[in-house]
């Protein structure tokens, strides 16, 4: 069975990047999409530091690490102004987008498109734009690193 294509991100604001990031513009690269909330204990303790570590360790490869602040609770506390302070305090350097609010409830647009169960969520997208891994909760560093390394080392598809 072939993995599904990754849906495009729906982002209202970007941090740490001069221009909006799209998955279409990253086709041909491996992408680690880290969905988080700044008030999520698992995100703060493990998921977000893990994404920053992947961004740093794989900086000399074509891996793209993208953060997605996907707020589905405590909306009033997790504003873009608060997120900007969080990014600064935790020294996050990878691009981070704010998931667009849901039109018919608290679940943001991209979170719904990917059928995320919560945060942290790690989604790995292959060079072909297909979802290769969709994990929820704490991911083992070694397992995620091995997966990223194997996908980065794959021969890019013919264009």
Mind sketching the topology for me?
Elements: E1 11-15, E2 31-36, H1 41-57, E3 64-69, H2 80-89, E4 96-99, H3 109-113, E5 121-125, E6 131-136, H4 141-153
Parallel strand pairs: 2-3, 3-4
Antiparallel strand pairs: 1-4, 2-5, 5-6
Low-confidence stretches: none
Strand order of the largest sheet: 1-4-3-2-5-6
Helix/sheet category: alpha/beta
Mean pLDDT: 93
Number of strands: 6
Q: What portion of residues belong to β-strands?
A: 15-25%
Please tell me how large the radius of gyration is. Answer: 15 Å
Q: How does this model look, in words?
A:
The chain is an alpha/beta fold. Helices cover 28% and strands 20% of the residues. It contains four helices and six strands. Strands 1-4-3-2-5-6 form a six-stranded mixed β-sheet. The mean pLDDT is 93.
Task: Quickly describe the structure.
The chain has 159 residues and is of the alpha/beta class. It has helices spanning 41-57, 80-89, 109-113, 141-153; strands at residues 11-15, 31-36, 64-69, 96-99, 121-125, 131-136.
Essential attributes:
6 strands, 6-stranded mixed β-sheet, 4 helices, alpha/beta, 159 residues
């Amino acid at each position: 069975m072939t993995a599904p294509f990754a849906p495009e991100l729906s982002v209202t604001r970007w941090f740490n990047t001069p221009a909006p990031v799209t998955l279409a513009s990253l086709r041909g690269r491996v992408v680690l999409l880290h969905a988080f909330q700044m008030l999520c204990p698992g995100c703060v303790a493990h998921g977000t530091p893990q994404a920053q570590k992947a961004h740093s360790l794989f900086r000399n490869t074509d891996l793209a690490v993208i953060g997605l602040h996907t707020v589905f609770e405590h909306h009033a506390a997790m504003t873009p102004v608060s997120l900007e302070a969080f990014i600064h305090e935790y020294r996050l350097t990878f691009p981070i987008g704010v998931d667009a609010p849901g039109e018919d409830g608290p679940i943001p647009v991209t979170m719904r498109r990917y059928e995320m169960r919560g945060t942290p969520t790690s989604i790995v997208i292959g060079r072909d734009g297909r979802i290769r891994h969709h994990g929820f909760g704490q991911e083992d560093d070694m397992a995620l690193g091995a997966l990223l390394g194997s996908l980065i080392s794959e021969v890019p598809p013919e264009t």
